[in-house]
Write a structure and sequence with these properties.
Helix content is 18%, strand content 34%. By secondary structure, the protein is of the alpha+beta class. A hairpin with a 5-residue loop joins β10 and β11. The N and C termini lie far apart (75 Å).
């Protein structure tokens, strides 16, 4: 079937003759799209020009106009997605990235989980932990937490700059690699989840600075981290208080998927050892069950430090 030219050509065409693609109109505004959508043509056809039998027809003009319209709409949508982020969200993402990529120093220490469960029973579980920093100036590190009692657990967390944490859990000779919401499980029957030791909430895509305030005798930045796909019993949102001077998380409240308070984290007793500030204990309260775990560190046996200079407060590390 032969395609005939439009019976009533445009006035400009009657006066000036046929025009090639890209000379006027919407095609001239988006010249690159002519190359993105070339159609097969006859001999002597230029790049991006339609076949001879479609040139200057109503069908070609309408089709190309629709193509350009969709491309323009896609461009506007992408720009709107980027521009929708508020300053608080942009700064929140930057802060979370800085905390994730904080360079840690080598350290080996021992401690004990002092657990009071939901039935008020008390349990103490010795634990040994070691942090090994990456070589050179890389912010990467590997952290190992191992219980030394009869209930043996071994957790290894590997971190590389701007990459998700890798978790490996060994329990009763069974090994499991965990990611994302799979890390929302207790470690060694304590109130600390595996995700807590890797500060997993800092890897969520939604980060926002809520405010700055003086909290617990520290000038703090309050960061809200939101999990877009929380586990059934996991964290849906975490609000953390970050000491501006040291960058250390000194307090945090975790909410479940229904936005009800689930757990509260607190740093207790900063103690100076060999000219360096270190955390003596961290506490995790499960406000829904009433259980509590206090992780106490044996600072006298500490080998190595986390801070970068003498007298500085500790930098953020796995487990607080």
């Amino acid at each position: 079937m032969m395609v005939r030219p439009h019976p009533d050509p445009l006035p400009q065409e009657r006066e000036n003759g046929p025009q090639s693609v890209g000379e006027t109109g919407i095609v001239g505004i988006f010249p690159s799209h002519a190359k993105l959508f070339p159609l097969p043509g006859g001999e002597g056809q230029g790049e991006g020009n339609p076949p001879v039998f479609l040139r200057n027809t109503f069908v070609w003009r309408r089709t190309f106009a629709l193509i350009c319209l969709f491309a323009f709409a896609a461009t506007i949508l992408c720009a709107a997605t980027t521009n929708d982020l508020s300053d608080a969200e942009i700064q929140g993402r930057r802060l979370a990235q800085q905390l994730r990529n904080t360079r840690l120093e080598n350290i080996t220490n021992t401690g004990v989980f002092k657990i009071r469960d939901a039935k008020k029973r008390r349990l103490e579980i010795p634990v040994r932990f070691q942090i090994t920093a990456a070589q050179a100036d890389s912010p990467g590190w590997e952290a190992c937490y191992e219980t030394t009692g009869t209930n043996h657990w071994l957790l290894t967390i590997s971190h590389s700059a701007d990459q998700p944490n890798h978790y490996r859990l060994v329990r009763r000779d069974e090994t499991a690699d965990l990611t994302g919401n799979e890390t929302a499980i207790p470690f060694a029957e304590s109130d600390f989840w595996i995700a807590d030791f890797g500060l997993e909430f800092l890897f969520w895509p939604e980060q926002k600075i809520l405010k700055k305030e003086f909290h617990n005798n520290c000038a703090c930045v309050v960061l809200e981290s939101t999990n877009p796909h929380p586990a059934t019993n996991g964290y849906g949102r975490v609000v953390s208080w970050i000491d501006e001077e040291s960058g250390n998380i000194i307090e945090a409240t975790a909410y479940d998927g229904s936005d009800k308070p689930l757990k509260e984290f607190n740093v207790k007793s900063l103690t100076k050892v060999n000219g360096h500030w270190q955390v003596e204990a961290v506490i995790m309260d499960n406000v829904q069950t009433g259980s509590r775990t206090r992780l106490e560190f044996d600072l006298k046996k500490s080998d190595g430090v986390r801070s970068d200079s003498a007298g500085a407060k500790p930098q953020p590390s796995p487990g607080g």
